[in-house]
Design a protein that fits this description.
CATH topology of the largest domain: Growth Hormone, Chain: A
Mean pLDDT: 79
Number of strands: 2
Oligomer: single chain
Strand order of the largest sheet: 1-2
Order of helices and strands: HHHHHHHHHHHHHHHHHHEHEH
Shape: globular
CATH architecture of the largest domain: Up-down Bundle
Number of domains: 2
Largest sheet: 2 strands, antiparallel
Structural class: mainly alpha
Radius of gyration: 23 Å
Number of helices: 20
Helix content: over 70%
Low-confidence stretches: 191-200, 399-464
CATH superfamily of the largest domain: MFS general substrate transporter like domains
Length: about 475
């Protein structure tokens, strides 16, 4: 792992940039939806698959991407994601039928973006493992979601006006290829010292925990409700007589709100007020998202939509970043983060798949967005209730993290190299050391290890 503290923050900036591009391409699909609807003259339900599939594939690719990360490393996956997303967007520029566009933009582009997104999501927690500012670093990186939505929304609108949908997808293809250059920043964290001195023990025991499924059904419903708003807010604004440009600015407002709230969430979680704070914040923001949607049933004024976009952005900020990492670490173990995070993205992605198309079908049947907004209210409030059940009934876990204490024969030194050994917090339990003369011992630490405590004498540990 690079020992230079500043390099950690370069990784944060790279991760934020990747997420900005990913969300700029996928989470502005509501604007693309309006563009495609106008170009192909297709039905709302049919066209809605555009916005739902691209986000679903992006999130669902977390599971295979997590496996690929372990095999090929961060750089190769990030670069491959850029190439795949670029090809998908290039093919989208050539599409003359909705079916082809769904395949190229929805599946190919979505999968490529998902590969790059997974690298950006995993890298920051690993680089800041045990660092006192880990959560704010994760929050900074996840701010890219808001930056991307804010910046890309008006740009996509202007590109379509100037060059048409073909030129729009060509420009986005060039932007997606930037994953290839940014991916080079994600240097592997495994140095010679880390490979010899550090070992994480991941288990699948969390799959036996009923709370795991309740938690992720809550995120499934949150993703369902979010995809409806992201996919239909622009079209909903047009049905109220609001111009396309003004509808696009609503997505920018969402992006600003996401960015600000994610930073505040990260700062709050770094304060370590309570280990339950992440899930409490999740409950609150999901509930606020559901309740605020109900206000759209009583007013069709543009200023109400502006306020709603800001509140909705705050609500969606809880579906990723530091809050999700905090919940997964607290209830299912830090050592399982890559596994649980991949599954979290998959559950959230399936919710994204179903929300927008179902909303489109419901609109076509009722010829009104009123039942659609009621559906969003119910799903978001229910997602908050499910997190409440986990908070009340599911016990928190204390992760066991095994540290390999290198023998003097292996390292040529009796002291740990603290530049190759990050700070970290272990389970408050001490287990016996493994016996033997020719192998390294394992030691489960009982407290947080500070910089000064990293210089431990292994001979002392052997005798404890």
């Amino acid at each position: 792992m690079p020992s230079c503290v500043s390099y950690r923050w370069i990784v944060v900036l790279a991760a934020m940039t990747v997420r900005a591009i990913v969300y700029g391409i996928t989470y502005t699909s509501g604007i693309v939806y309006v563009i495609v609807l106008r170009k192909f003259q297709t039905g709302k339900a049919e066209t809605s698959w555009i916005s739902s599939i691209v986000t679903t594939v992006m999130f669902a690719s977390g599971l295979p991407s997590g496996r690929l990360l372990k095999t090929f490393g961060w750089r190769i996956i990030a670069i491959s994601g850029g190439l795949i997303a670029g090809v998908g967007l290039f093919l989208s520029s050539l599409s003359t039928q909705l079916t082809y566009l769904i395949l190229s933009y929805g599946f190919v582009t979505g999968f490529g973006c998902g590969m790059a997104y997974m690298v950006a999501t995993v890298a920051v927690p690993v680089y800041f493992l045990g660092h006192p500012r880990q959560k704010i670093a994760i929050a900074f990186a996840s701010c890219g979601t808001g930056v991307g939505t804010f910046v890309f929304s008006p740009i996509i609108q202007q590109l379509d006006s100037a060059y048409g949908s073909k030129g729009l997808f060509l420009v986005l293809a060039g932007v997606a290829l930037q994953f290839c250059s940014i991916g080079l920043i994600f240097r592997p964290v495994s140095s010679k010292n880390n490979e010899k001195c550090e070992k994480f023990v991941a288990t699948w025991h969390f799959l036996k925990n009923p709370g795991f499924y309740v938690t992720h059904f809550g995120f499934f419903l949150a993703g369902f409700g979010d995809s409806v708003i992201y996919g239909h807010l622009g079209e909903y604004a047009e049905t109220l007589g609001i111009s396309t440009d003004k509808g696009a600015y609503l997505y920018s407002i969402i992006g600003i709100s996401v960015m600000i709230v994610k930073l505040l969430q990260g700062a709050a979680l770094d304060a370590k007020v309570s280990t339950s704070l992440p899930i409490k914040l999740g409950m609150i923001f999901f509930l606020v998202g559901g309740v605020s949607t109900s206000f759209l049933l009583f007013s069709d004024e543009y200023f109400v939509l502006i306020i709603y976009a800001a509140v909705f952005g705050a609500s969606t900020a809880a579906t990723g970043g530091a809050i999700v990492v905090g919940i997964l670490e607290t209830y299912y173990g830090h050592e399982n983060l890559e596994l649980t995070l991949g599954m979290n993205l998959a559950f959230f992605g399936v919710g994204n798949l179903l929300g927008a198309p179902l909303a489109g079908s419901l609109f076509e049947v009722q010829d009104s967005y009123t039942p659609v907004m009621i559906m969003v209210c119910v799903t978001k409030i229910t997602s908050s209730f499910l997190l409440l059940l986990v908070y009340i009934f599911s016990p928190q876990v204390h992760s066991v993290l095994q540290i390999k204490i290198c023998s003097p024969e292996e390292e040529g030194s009796e002291k740990l190299n603290k530049e190759g050994f990050p700070n970290m917090c272990m389970e408050n339990e001490k287990t016996p050391l493994l016996q033997g003369e020719n192998h390294s011992d394992f030691f489960n630490v009982a407290k947080e290890i500070t910089d000064s405590e990293l210089e431990l004498d292994t001979s002392t540990l052997r005798g404890s």
